[in-house]
Write a structure and sequence with these properties.
This protein is α+β, with helices and mostly antiparallel strands. The chain has three domains: 1-59, no CATH class; 61-89 and 205-290, Zn peptidases (Aminopeptidase, 3-Layer(aba) Sandwich), CATH 3.40.630; 91-203, 2-Layer Sandwich (Alpha-Beta Plaits). It is built from nine helices and twelve strands. It has helices at 17-22, 28-33, 42-48, 74-78, 116-132, 170-191, 210-222, 237-241, 268-286; strands at residues 64-69, 82-88, 90-99, 103-104, 139-141, 145-148, 154-155, 158-167, 194-203, 206-207, 227-232, 247-252.
Length: 290
């Protein structure tokens, strides 16, 4: 399993392991064997703090609603208080290892080098082009890089890095996947590098339940709140749970669209509005009349 941080910036990957295992999308064994950057297994760490438990349990959801900040700028910029989330976009994550040859930085001629970091830089540039090349909605990111031997006067011999692509249209996501593979192969050939590209997450675009979406929309109307239909760009538990139960989400604005950053913030009145919509939607889906 991968050893870089997951969607929510925590220790273990891939994102949302608990909900993915609950929905049958990820084997429990794979969850427990997921390792952090120090090589510690998730299962062992749960054991250490007394949270391992006995399994996933047998309880099932009648419906699932999740409230969250948008993690993007759209609601704030358009003046909407509530995002009615209709589904989650597809995403693919990869671990890429580029291997060249570590050598002395002062005595190795430029035309003799097999510089893994130079190859990584070219991959990063290609990934950025792929992200901008599939509008609307396509994004692509390299968020983690580890260089070896990580010495000032040594040409990098190996680089481990993350690559991810996302798109709300699975057909375009497949094209982005092919473009990533083509770019990695071209970089490796040009730089005389070995490349190992492993896909560690394949999450197709996931539509939410029409009735649950309608309950959120009606709740926003009942609260007289400006609302906007939108697709989630980030991974959430609701996206996994939607495979096994009716699900929907509610977004509220966040300042500047900033998330996964210590400056992340949201207005109390927007959070309260989201909570009111969440309550109304849940009661409606449960058949409780106010």
């Amino acid at each position: 399993m991968v050893a870089w941080t997951n969607e929510e910036g925590t220790r273990f990957a891939p994102s949302m392991m608990g909900s993915m295992a609950f929905a049958g999308l990820l084997p429990i064994g794979a969850v427990l064997e997921s390792r952090d950057a120090q090589g510690r297994a998730f299962g062992d760490e749960l054991e250490r703090i007394g949270y391992r438990g006995e399994g996933l349990g047998e309880r099932r959801f009648g419906a699932y609603f999740e409230a969250h900040i948008e993690q993007g700028p759209v609601l704030e910029e358009t003046g909407h208080v509530i995002g009615v989330v209709t589904g989650g976009q597809g995403q693919r994550w990869y671990d890429l290892v580029l291997t060249g040859q570590a050598a002395h930085a002062g005595s190795t001629p430029m035309d003799r080098r097999r510089d893994a970091l130079l190859g990584a830089a070219q991959v990063i540039e290609a990934v950025n082009r792929i992200g901008t090349g599939y509008p609307p909605g396509g994004v692509a990111t390299v968020g983690h890089l580890s260089v070896s031997p990580d010495s000032r006067n040594v040409i990098p011999g190996e680089v481990s890095m993350s690559v991810e692509v996302r798109h709300p249209d699975d057909r375009k996501l497949l094209k982005m996947d092919a473009a990533v593979r083509e770019a990695v192969a071209a970089v490796a050939e040009q730089g005389r590098l070995r490349a190992r590209l492993d896909m560690v997450l394949d999450q197709p675009a996931t539509p939410f339940d029409d009735i649950c979406i309608g309950a959120v929309r009606e709740a926003a109307r009942a609260e007289d709140l400006p609302h906007l239909d939108m697709v989630s760009g980030a991974a959430h538990d609701a996206i996994a749970i939607a495979r096994v139960a009716p699900a929907a989400m509610i977004f509220v604005p966040c300042a500047g669209g900033i998330s996964h950053n210590e400056t992340e913030s949201a207005l109390p009145q927007d959070l309260a509005a989201g909570c009111r919509v969440l309550l109304r939607a849940m009661l409606a889906r449960a058949g409780v009349r106010g």
